[in-house]
Amino acid sequence: MAQARDSERVPQAWDEQLRARGYRATPQRQLVLEAVARLGHATPEDVGAEVRQAARGVNISTIYRTLELLEQLGMVTHAHLGHGAPTYHLAADADHVHLVCRSCGKITEVSPEAVRPLVTALDAGQDFETDVGHLTVFGRCGQCRP
Questions:
Q1: CA spacing 20 to 30 A to 50: which of 61, 64, 108, 127?
Q2: How far apart are CA 1 and CA 41, in angstroms?
């Protein structure tokens, strides 16, 4: 999740990013960005529940449309961490690989350097460029392994 930041600077930067791309910084967009920043890996339903604590009238379709727009603008990104809905996090915090325990569901973030040998081998051997930002590795964590 995001490192501690100046709480005034981040929303202003979001406003500037939206306006620079021709979009208004609406209260709903701001609330969705704040929820994603607070929650880290969050499904649209998680984001919706968080947003509705501040603005009860925001429905789930607004959350989905807003997340889709924010992803198109490069402000948030998603990952598939299981069979359910994708989870979203700020694009600025997306430089990591997800390790998901199939037993307990724990999600661990590791540096892309941890998979560099695999990425290099796929590039050299398969002429395949890996999108590490969407890479999720499933297995069992140390606490769940026998």
A1: 108
A2: 8
Buried b (16+ CB within 10 A) or exposed e, 55-92: eeebeeebbeebbebbeebebbbbbebeeeebbbbbbb
Candidate CATH numbers 3.30.160.20, 3.30.1490.190, 1.10.10.10, 3.30.70.270; the one for domain 97-139 = 3.30.1490.190
* pLDDT tens-digit map of 86-132: 899 888 877 889 999 999 989 898 999 999 999 999 999 999 999 88
Which amino acid is it at 96? Answer: H
